């Protein structure tokens, strides 16, 4: 562990250096704020011990502020003489770990140092554990684009609050990862994070999932079950694809959010809940309100703070960094630490528009790493569509010369037939999973279901 000692008295610096070095720590000394900043900017420091008075014009508060500006700030212990204890307490309010008065007992100081370093180790371990428990959460911190820096800045601001957050972004931009980041950076981090895909559940099931139900409320309700809003406790409930919630359920959801109470299906009693609600959608809810598909009052209830996630094509400068991030994960999972992109492959990735956004890039990197014969991922490792080749299709397209444009030709019938074949192809490629098939076609789940019904494919799809 590396400790920085800041004191304007040479004798005190030398004393603390000897004391802490004998205790087994790496020690660096600085005589003032400027020298301390230089050390903090050039080396990893785990703990700073600073005197409160540093000459006539500077103080330990200046050192404390310098540490707070770092991405991973070290713990700070303030040494204070009699009469400056009030300033030390102020330093603790601003983020210092603790203070110790002069003259101090050597063993007391070493114990304080030990506890401060233990706290830092636990904090670092907690960050690592959260990333392990939430695979991919770290990807949202990758990138240098101004758009993503603005997103991350807003996450930092809203996370400690109780405000409802509405996340908007195209499919695959990482809306759930941002919701998890808000949860993990809040005081609710130790409580559950419970996501629900509103598009994947029909009206009755969605209400039961959110609000709970009592025994006998409907066929199959063999026991009482609390809804996610109650089950989450002081945690977070993430309502993904909120734009797909049926209007009848929107009315009930609005009342629940206003009253902070739920009425389980089949019950007349209300139960208070304390979870935070974060919602997400790939639709423009303002347009849905004007079209009469989304309640205006619910929109304003959810839209306390809006967070816009940019599509990957609008942050192209981050593609190479994201690709390296995903490749590092593959190195660990496949046990191949030498894997790397060729310059040509990285250039092609960086110039692609990625209609599937970050999720598509992650899948492409995983595919390339899995299928690569060697450690260098070349152009041949990338899908044909990225290399400018025609992608193989399960739907045979008729050559233009064979398009029947004679008497009786119907463009509408021709397009309907093509739409039907693409629906079947998507279902086949997705293994019959409707949500995945909708994503492959760039459709919302509701639109996909409508098109299936339109072509009489609902039963066939269910059998798949």
From TrEMBL:
Pfam family, one: Sigma54_activat
Modified residues (4-aspartylphosphate): 51
Domain of life (superkingdom): Bacteria
A GO molecular-function descriptor: ATP binding
A GO BP annotation: phosphorelay signal transduction system
Domain Sigma-54 factor interaction: 141-370
Location of the Response regulatory domain: 2-117
Alphabetic keyword roster: ATP-binding, Nucleotide-binding, Phosphoprotein, Transcription, Transcription regulation
Entry keyword Nucleotide-binding: yes
Protein name in the entry: Two-component system response regulator PilR (NtrC family)
């Amino acid at each position: 562990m590396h400790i920085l000692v800041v004191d304007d008295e040479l004798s005190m610096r030398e004393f603390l250096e000897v004391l802490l070095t004998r205790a087994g720590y790496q020690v660096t000394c600085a005589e003032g704020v400027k020298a301390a900043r230089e050390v903090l900017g050039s080396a990893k420091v785990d703990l700073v011990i600073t005197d409160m008075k540093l000459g006539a014009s500077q103080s330990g508060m200046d050192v404390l502020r310098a540490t707070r500006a770092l991405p991973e700030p070290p713990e700070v212990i303030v040494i204070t003489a009699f009469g400056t204890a009030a300033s030390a307490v102020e330093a603790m309010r601003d983020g210092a770990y603790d203070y110790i008065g002069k003259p101090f007992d050597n063993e007391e100081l070493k114990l304080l140092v030990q506890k401060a370093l233990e706290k830092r180790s636990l904090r670092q371990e907690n960050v690592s554990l959260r990333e392990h428990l939430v695979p991919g959460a770290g990807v949202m911190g990758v990138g240098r684009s101004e758009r993503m820096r603005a997103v991350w800045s807003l996450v930092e601001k809203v996370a400690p609050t109780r405000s409802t957050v509405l996340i908007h972004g195209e499919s695959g931009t990482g809306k759930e990862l941002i919701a998890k980041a808000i949860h993990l950076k809040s005081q609710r981090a130790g409580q559950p994070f419970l996501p629900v895909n509103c598009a994947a559940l029909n009206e009755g099931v969605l209400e039961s999932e959110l609000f709970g139900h009592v025994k006998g409320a409907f066929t199959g309700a063999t026991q009482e079950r609390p809804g996610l809003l109650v089950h989450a406790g002081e945690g977070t409930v993430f309502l993904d694809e909120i734009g797909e919630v049926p209007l009848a359920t929107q009315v009930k959801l609005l009342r629940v959010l206003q009253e902070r109470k739920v009425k389980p299906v089949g019950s007349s009693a209300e139960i208070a809940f304390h979870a935070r609600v974060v919602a997400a959608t790939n639709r423009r809810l303002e347009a849905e309100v004007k079209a009469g598909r989304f309640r205006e009052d619910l929109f304003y209830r959810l839209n306390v703070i809006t967070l816009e996630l940019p599509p990957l094509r609008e942050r192209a400068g981050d593609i190479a960094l994201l690709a390296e991030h995903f490749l590092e994960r593959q190195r660990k999972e496949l046990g191949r630490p030498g894997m790397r992109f060729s310059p040509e492959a990285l250039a092609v990735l960086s110039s692609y528009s990625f209609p599937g956004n970050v999720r598509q890039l992650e899948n492409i990197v995983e595919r390339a790493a899995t299928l690569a014969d060697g450690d260098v991922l070349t152009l041949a490792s990338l899908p044909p569509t990225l290399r400018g080749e025609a992608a193989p299709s399960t739907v045979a397209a008729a050559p233009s010369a064979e398009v029947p444009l004679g008497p009786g030709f119907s463009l509408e019938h021709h397009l309907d037939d093509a739409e039907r074949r693409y629906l079947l192809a998507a279902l086949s490629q997705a293994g019959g999973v409707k949500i995945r098939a909708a994503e492959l076609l760039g459709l919302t789940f509701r639109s996909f279901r409508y098109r299936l019904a339109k072509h009489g494919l609902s039963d066939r799809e269910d059998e798949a």
